Structure to design on (778 residues):
């Protein structure tokens, strides 16, 4: 090296060289659709597949929205009714609003009934905005009033410089294999075979529990989206059924030990009661109280098909006169 | 402010180095360091910065008095003043709880938070007092120089603890021209330390926290991995901080003493403590163990008592809780066992000795990490009774990846960052730059506090 400070130049070269390589890689893989170009991004297993399926529909009687806890709600007990289950990882209130808006305005699909499986976490301020949602500009653009906030959160430099982005880039590359194994039927209902019904306290469950212990409050932003969602259904004359999704009783017992979850549950119920006249609301948060079978879960938080059918039977009176 | 924060790296650090480079004379550089150090501290808590300032002023005056009058009562008064502050903030509630339990009282705990770095700067001050009293050094007349020594931000919060005699020449010649080699070595240490912290320690820490909070529902093998992962996390966290501190100081021309020397390669417990948090070990040896040896009986029992006492002190320094006392006690007992069986223990192959020491230290860290004794014993019980069925979840896969990476670095890399001699090939610096970039990506997931900040 000629100069005593040439090492600084070399360190900068290493730093900015890596920056450029990483930035190019990120923009090519583009998992959240943050860049206007890039290969087909897949960061969600069932979302894109469900979107392809729903595009082919000409009409839908019943649309199911919600998180993965609602993915097994089916038309097993509904004769001659067209049901489409769009529940996937998009379970937050802004997700529900964005999806329904997209179906109505972009795909001209107006369901008669919308069933929204509402998780208490849908209002949790500690939940990030859903990166899966942001990956699809169609959904993203529906959230115009909070666009600034979302843009701030998705500022490209901030967003891509995190290990989570690397993880999602890897998922974009490798998810095709999982995508192939992920089976949903023509109506968007998950057909993945589940082994056993035990609730094992592994990492996912613990991660879920950790998030429950943080905040007692509901997110104002998410409450606003929920109100917009209700207004949308009301303006479009759609019957809205909202039920609070049940958890495996052992987990429900655990989260209720702390005040944070029970506070949010109580506030969620109070919020829903405000809309007593415009929505049908079912509090199914307590599996035992609503008559679900405590064994009918394929893990700690997800009801299996049998329990999902019990849920459907429970909420059916809410929309039986509409269809 | 954290070393691993954007505000520190992008603004604070660069502004500090730039100003330091512009300013040429001693006084202005002292003032520059003092201002930046106080801002660095006040970022955490403006009110507690005043405690730091008071400690600096009082210790400066006491230092002059001890130097001038050389009277033991003045020394004790000075030491008690600073230990009193430390005791009040760190141990008052703990002692209060014990007293309440014994006499059945019901006095409320005080609502105070522990001032950051108080035990570290208190130890600096005590070593300064004692060294003046024993005529190892002279009291510093120049207030700015003394304040610089005490508040210098790289070492302010979590050490390393430098005795004044070790760094006085560097502070004396603070006006010397910044050496390119110092910048080079300093940047290397800073980047390595940052990478240790954000890539390994923080990634392990997130999973460790989850499982420690839900240990009663976790299977034994997972828990065992988590326990090992915490040991590795703690090492990378604290040694990462120390590397960054050394690097930052070096860029200002101050050579702080090294604090870690591959501690997990130690073959016995005393050797471990000679390699882990070395400056605090040295402090306790010089200012507690050796003076105590002079007053205790010079036989085996005197040594054993001294060892137990010193390690108890070690334990309780880490925190006011019975789990820390047990932590110290374990190390005291293991040291005694080692000394008692040294003749036979040394016959074991070196690798076996390292394995035993490493396992024992990791085991003791269960007490260190647990919030209380009951939890620590419950975790040990759950591991010992082989509960649950192990399966690989994404979190465990994550944990195992960074655990194995950490262990490979600890045991198989031929150097430790503190004594590593920098290669001069251009490719090395390009890789260093790339490593810095990777560390920045990991930093993007959020700033995690250094574990030793709480002590």
């Amino acid at each position: 090296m000629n100069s005593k400070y040439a090492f600084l130049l070399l360190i900068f070269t290493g730093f900015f060289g890596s920056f450029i390589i990483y930035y190019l890689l990120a923009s090519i893989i583009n998992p959240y659709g943050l860049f206007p170009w890039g290969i087909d991004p897949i960061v969600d297993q069932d979302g894109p597949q469900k979107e392809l399926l729903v595009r082919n529909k000409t009409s839908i009687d019943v649309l199911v929205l919600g998180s993965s806890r609602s993915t097994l709600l089916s038309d097993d007990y509904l004769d001659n009714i067209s049901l489409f289950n769009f529940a996937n990882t998009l379970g937050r209130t802004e997700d529900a609003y964005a999806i329904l808006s997209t179906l109505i305005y972009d795909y001209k699909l107006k369901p008669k009934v919308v069933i929204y499986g509402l998780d208490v976490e849908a209002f949790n301020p500690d939940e990030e905005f859903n990166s899966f949602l942001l990956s699809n500009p169609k959904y993203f653009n529906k959230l115009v009033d909070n666009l600034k906030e979302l843009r701030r959160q998705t500022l490209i430099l901030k967003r891509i410089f995190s290990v989570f982005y690397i993880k999602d880039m890897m998922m974009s590359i490798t998810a095709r294999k999982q995508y192939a194994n992920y089976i949903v039927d023509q109506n968007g209902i998950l057909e993945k075979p589940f082994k056993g019904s035990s609730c094992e306290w592994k990492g996912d469950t613990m991660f879920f529990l950790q998030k429950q212990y943080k905040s007692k409050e509901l997110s104002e932003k998410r409450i606003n989206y929920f109100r917009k969602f209700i207004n949308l259904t009301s303006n479009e004359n759609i019957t809205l059924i909202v039920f609070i999704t049940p958890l495996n009783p052992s987990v429900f017992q655990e989260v209720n030990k702390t005040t944070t979850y029970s506070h949010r549950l109580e506030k969620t119920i109070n919020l829903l009661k405000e809309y007593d006249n415009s929505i049908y609301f079912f509090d199914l948060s307590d599996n035992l109280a609503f008559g679900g079978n405590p064994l009918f879960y394929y893990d700690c938080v997800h009801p299996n098909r049998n329990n999902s059918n019990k849920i459907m039977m429970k909420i059916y009176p809410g929309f039986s006169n509409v269809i | 402010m954290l070393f691993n924060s954007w505000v520190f790296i992008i603004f604070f650090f660069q502004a500090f180095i730039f100003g330091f480079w512009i300013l040429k004379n001693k006084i202005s550089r002292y003032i520059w360091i003092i201002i930046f150090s106080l801002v660095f501290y006040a970022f955490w808590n403006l009110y507690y910065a005043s405690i730091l300032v008071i400690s600096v002023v009082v210790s400066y005056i006491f230092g002059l008095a001890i130097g001038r009058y050389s009277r033991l009562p003045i020394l004790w008064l000075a030491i008690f003043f600073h230990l009193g502050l430390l005791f009040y903030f760190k141990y008052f509630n703990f002692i209060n709880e014990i007293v309440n339990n014994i006499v059945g009282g019901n006095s409320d705990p005080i609502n105070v938070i522990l001032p950051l770095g108080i035990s570290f700067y208190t130890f600096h001050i005590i070593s300064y007092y004692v060294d003046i009293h024993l005529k190892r050094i002279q009291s510093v007349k120049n207030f700015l120089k003394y304040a610089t020594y005490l508040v210098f931000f790289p070492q302010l919060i979590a050490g390393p603890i430098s005795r004044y005699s070790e760094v006085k020449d560097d502070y004396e010649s603070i006006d010397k021209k910044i050496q390119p080699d110092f910048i080079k070595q300093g940047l290397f240490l800073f980047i390595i330390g940052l990478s240790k912290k954000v890539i390994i320690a923080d990634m392990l820490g997130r999973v460790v926290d989850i499982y420690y909070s839900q240990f009663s529902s976790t299977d034994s093998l997972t828990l065992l991995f988590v326990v090992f992962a915490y040991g590795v996390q703690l090492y990378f966290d604290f040694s990462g901080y120390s590397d960054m501190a050394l690097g930052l100081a070096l860029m200002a021309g101050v050579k702080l003493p090294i604090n870690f020397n591959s501690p997990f390669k130690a073959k016995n417990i005393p050797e471990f403590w000679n390699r882990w948090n070395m400056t605090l070990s040295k402090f306790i040896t010089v200012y507690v163990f050796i003076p105590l040896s002079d007053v205790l009986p010079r036989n085996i029992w005197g040594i054993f008592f001294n060892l137990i006492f010193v390690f108890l002190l070690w334990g309780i320094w880490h925190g006011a809780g019975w789990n820390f006392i047990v932590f110290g006690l374990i190390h005291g007992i293991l040291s005694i066992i080692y000394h008692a069986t040294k003749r036979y223990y040394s016959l074991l192959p070196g690798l076996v000795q390292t394995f035993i020491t490493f396992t024992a230290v990791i085991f003791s860290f269960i007490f260190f990490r647990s919030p209380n004794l009951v939890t620590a014993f419950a975790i040990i019980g759950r591991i010992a009774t082989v509960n649950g069925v192990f399966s690989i979840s994404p979190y465990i896969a994550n944990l195992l990846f960074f655990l194995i990476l950490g262990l490979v670095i600890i045991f198989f890399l031929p150097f430790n960052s503190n004594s590593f001699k920098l290669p001069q090939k251009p490719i090395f610096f390009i890789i260093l730059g790339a490593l810095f970039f990777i560390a920045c990506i990991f930093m993007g997931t959020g700033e995690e506090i250094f574990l030793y900040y709480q002590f």
Q: What stands out?
A: Chain B has a mean pLDDT of 85.
